[in-house]
Structures are given as C-alpha cells and as structure tokens.
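Moderator note: this is an archived Q&A kept for reference. The question asked for a predicted structure of one protein chain; the sequence and the answer are reproduced below.
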Amino acid sequence: MFHELASHNDDLRRLVEQGYAVAIDSNYLVVRDIPYLDQDGTLQWGAIVTTLVFIDQHRVTQDDHQVWFAGTVPHDLSKRPIPNLGGGPTTLTLSDACKDVVVQRRFSNKPVPAARFIDFFEKIESYVTIISGPAIERHNANPYTFRLVAEDTTTSVFKFRDTLTSRAEITDLSRKFSDDIIAIIGLGGTGSYVLDYLIKTPVREIRGFDRDPYHVHNAFRSPGRLLPDELGKSKADIYQARYENFRTGLTLQAKHIDATSIEALAGVTFAFVCVDKGSSRAGIFDLLLTLGIPFIDVGMGLHRKHGALDGLLRTTYYSATHGKQTRDRGFAELADAPDDEYRAAIQTAELNALNASIAIIRYKQIRGFYYDTVNCTNLLFGIDDLAIAREDG
C-alpha cells in the first residue's frame, strides 16, 4: 500500500529514498527506527506516527504540526528532556501489524517561521532532527535504515478511505463492528435511514429485505436523490444501485421476511426490524428469537392533537438471551392497528431519521462504541415535549 501511495505522492517517495522505515497502518503514516536518548543518556529506538489525510484514493496531505511518538521522553546530551516538544502522554491503538509500535505520547512543535509543514517529508525530517539529534551525535545512530516493514493488509469494506476515523483517533472502536453481519428487515421510511447510517459503519455485511416498489412518497421519507426512472422499481434494487459504489458486503433483496425465512438470515449477528404492520412484525420476531439473533425493533405512532401531529417514536432492544421476555412485555404491537394516522401522514422524514438515529446509537452502545450506563431495553421519544422515557434492562 505504501509503495502505491509513494508513486503518487512526491513527499512520501522522498521519505523512502531518504531511507526511513516507513509503512501505512489504519490511515496513519508510521516511521520506525527513530533513535533517541532516554533520561540516562542510553540509546533507545522509537517510532513516529502521524495522520494521513486522503484527498482521493491515491493522494494524501497532512493538516497539522503534531505527531505521536512510540517511546519514552527524548532527552538531550545533558540528560534533560528535549524542550519545545509540547504535547504529553497519550495512547493510540494501531493494527496487529504494528504491535511493536506502542504510542506513549504526543508531540506538538510548529516550524519556524511558516508555522506549518509543507508536506510529510518536511514534517518527519523536522521531528527526527529534534528527537534524534542528540542520539546521532553521541552514538552515531542512524534513522535511515531503509528497512521494509510489514503493513496492515486488512481489506476495508469501504471503497473510499475512512479518513475521519483515524483523524478522530477511534480506529480501535470502529473495529468493534468488523465481525457483524446486519439484517435490515424493511427499507421504508425508518429502514431506509437505518440503511444509510449502516452503509457508513464498518460492519462486515449488510443484508436488506423489502419486496415493495419505490414510489414518489418513499422519496419524501428517505435519504438521497430521486431519479424519475427509479419509480416503480423495487426499493431493494434502488438502494442497491445507490450505495454499492460506497462499500462492499451489501446485498438488498426484494424479499418478504417471515417465520419461514431461515436461510435468508443464516449467519446474521444483529438485525433491525423496521416494518409498520404488527402481523408482519410477529412472524419476524418469532424467526429472530428462534435463531437467537439479537435485534432492535422501531415503531412510530402518530395522531392529531389540537390540529397538529403528536405521538411517540419507539426503539426496543431484544437481546439473544432475554428477547422472549422483552417480547412478552408488549412494547411492540404484534397485530395490525386500525386507523393508524402514520399511514396517512407519511411525509415525516425527520421522524423517520430520528427513529433510525436512536436505533443506530443504541446498537453502537450494545457493541461498545458508545458509552452505556443503563442497558436500556425500551426507549420512547415524545414529539410534544421532545423528551425520552426509558425502561432499563
């Protein structure tokens, strides 16, 4: 990967030609074999790590003057900490290919007089001069080892680089989704937003199911564009074409899921149920509970009140171990409700998006991406007072 980038980025190519032991890991540039002196004046070896900002698939740039450092505090020839490095102790999780690079601190040193680095070559050279200068002088240490280092060869599900994950330093958290195979049952108002959010989540696979056609009203309560030639085609086909250029592992089918759809859900690790008919929900619940698949069910109930729409959005989590008990508590309607205002007032995209957002946040809490203190089973969002009521598990 690095040599491919080096062929398109002159500053990276110059790092290679200079002799640095460079590699790419999780959208970070890693430079090993950086000599420095510890507090006793002993020669040590560390590594510099800095964020790669991708302009496109082949071109990168750097946007700040900071780096991470794998090593202890570098000292000068008088055994004093090297001044003007700023920063402080911190950690950063890299891939298994970089187990030897244990980040311990962050440095912040602005170049003078420009206050910014032109490119990665200038940035690495500047930090090596500061950190390694004493070690080079005392021990004739050489940071230019020309060493080839194994890189992270993990294949991303995304067809474009997820650069914000590394810039936000949450790569370790994003890996919590890497083994998930997600089913979305129902790609209507709320389901289409659940799909949109999951497309950008690094789960291994997404399977979506909805046999209904895509009509004009669907465009008013779903994300994205509307092209005239899409009308009348299946929702599954429309969304497959819309998102397949963004990621791999996406399979959307014009298929109805019921208690007999065992094969369609083989291997699924989590599901979202986004249907508006209680009778359909009942069969889907039976299937998921029988297969031991944890899932989140969403629902929306609207009615007129003083000339305006009022109601509740519901998000309910059914775990693999306690899902049947949760079903028996009656949070979700398992029969068709007559005179449902929601079916008449379908232009509620913001409510569909909000319901999907709550469901995705809850899923990411369950997976440990977001912090969770209550282990909530059922959430109700009231439209009138914008308040959330919950029942904890």
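Archived answer notes: The chain has two domains: 2-154, 179-392.
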